[in-house]
Write a structure and sequence with these properties.
By secondary structure, the protein is of the alpha/beta class. Helices cover about 35% and strands about 20% of the residues. It contains 11 helices and 16 strands. The longest helix is centred in the N-terminal third of the chain and has 22 residues.
């Protein structure tokens, strides 16, 4: 391929058609707008010297398109935060090479991993003509942006982990609430009716409860009780309460937040759970910890690493390291922005378009944004067997 030549990606035309029809009040036949067409995306020219750990200037500009987009990443931050920011930068660069260069002018700014700096840069972007802001990754900054008023504020596609969303400030990453809801829905679809939610105490507990209850209602199932638990006692008190409150639940959902679920699972095991009559549903947050024998038999809905396949080979060839979910999130948001710009122009980033109920399919799977700023994702449904994830169903969503 010629150096600098933009990839002719059929996804953008499929997405453009779907979005244009949505904007005009019509539904496309296919429903979901496709972010990727894996069979026909060609490899871009190799960008020598690029890597996830390479240094970067405070501000970088990519593309020559008429739609101005700002992306906020912790490029020079230390540790994992900086590594994540640089991976996301490379994912964004690949998306620009694939489909964005002629549609967007993407300005990537360095937040340095500092929430105050991220908030300041976000406000600048919002007030100086950006049509979309992608980022930040810092949770306090995303939460602050969600409190800002202004009907003309451009949409923000926030990349912060555990961000619940807000009006016009959309949560991009898979949340524990979404994983829990999809996992519960996976069992409800098989006929389970009565569920208990054990959720780590904290500000996220009510978000998880609401999402799970909504997801179950689609299948006529109910959340019988939600029991917040303290990490201090390993959930023992909440599990004792469960026995006196709920008679014969079909499943217990354990949303453990940042902590390992092992102590809670040990307490459940002492009560004979899981067993023939009662299943356990975990979340994607479990997988941040070493696989424990106590995880055996639990069900989990989480992203399919295979979804990144369409970009994985090209990314490795271009940047000399493997694509992961952070790369994919950044790629998808730049690709989505380019698709909307192609379909309805620089001023087409309306709630109607972004909150298309049919959703979009990208390298992180099927997703859609809700009016409250939360995202919902369809993902594979697994059961843990012999310390590994075994596929039960290709797709479950809870929406």
């Amino acid at each position: 391929m010629e150096a600098g030549r933009q990839v002719r990606n059929p996804w953008i035309w499929a997405l453009a058609l779907g979005l244009a029809m949505t904007a005009s009040g019509c539904q496309s036949k296919g429903g979901v707008s496709e972010v990727l067409d894996p069979a026909t995306i060609a490899a871009p020219a190799v960008q020598n010297g690029a890597s996830g750990s390479s240094p970067a200037p405070a501000t970088q500009s990519l593309g020559t398109g008429s739609t101005k987009v700002t992306m906020l990443l912790p490029l020079s931050a230390s540790g994992t935060s900086g590594e994540t920011g640089r991976k996301m930068r490379d994912g964004a660069r690949l998306a620009m090479t694939d489909i964005g260069n002629g549609l967007l002018t993407l300005t990537i700014q360095d937040t340095k991993g500092d929430s105050a700096q991220a908030g300041k840069l976000a406000v600048q972007a919002i007030t100086t003509g950006s049509k979309v802001v992608i980022g930040p990754t810092e949770l306090p900054a995303a939460q602050h942006i969600a409190t800002l008023s202004g009907s003309k504020r451009p949409p923000v596609l926030a990349l912060a982990d555990n961000f619940a969303g807000g009006a016009g400030v959309y949560a991009v990453r898979l949340s524990e609430a979404d994983s829990a809801a999809a996992g519960a829905a996976g069992l409800a679809a098989k006929g389970r009716k009565k569920f208990v939610l054990l959720v780590a105490e904290g500000s996220n507990a009510s978000v998880v409860e609401k999402r799970v209850a909504n997801g179950l209602s689609i299948y006529g199932a109910t959340l019988a009780v939600t029991l917040p638990y303290s990490a201090g006692d390993g959930g023992a008190k909440a599990i004792d309460q469960m026995g006196s409150i709920v008679d014969a639940p079909d499943a217990v959902i354990v949303a453990s937040g940042d902590g390992s679920p092992a102590a809670v699972l040990a307490a459940l095991k002492s009560k004979g759970i899981p067993g023939k009559a009662v299943s356990v549903v975990g979340t994607d947050r479990w997988l941040e910890h070493p696989m424990d024998p106590l995880f055996e038999g639990a069900y989990i809905a989480t992203l399919d690493p295979g979804e990144t396949g369409p970009i994985a080979d090209r990314f490795r060839t271009t940047y000399n390291y493997p694509a992961d979910v952070d790369v994919a999130y950044a790629y998808d948001m730049v690709a989505l922005t380019a698709g909307i710009a192609s379909a309805v122009g620089p001023d087409g980033f309306s709630k109607q378009v972004l909150e298309n109920p049919n959703g979009f399919r990208g390298s992180t799977g099927l997703f859609r944004f809700r009016a409250d700023g939360s995202s919902q994702r369809s993902m594979p449904f697994y059961r843990i067997e012999k310390g590994a994830l075994k596929l039960v169903a290709k797709s479950t969503s809870g929406f």
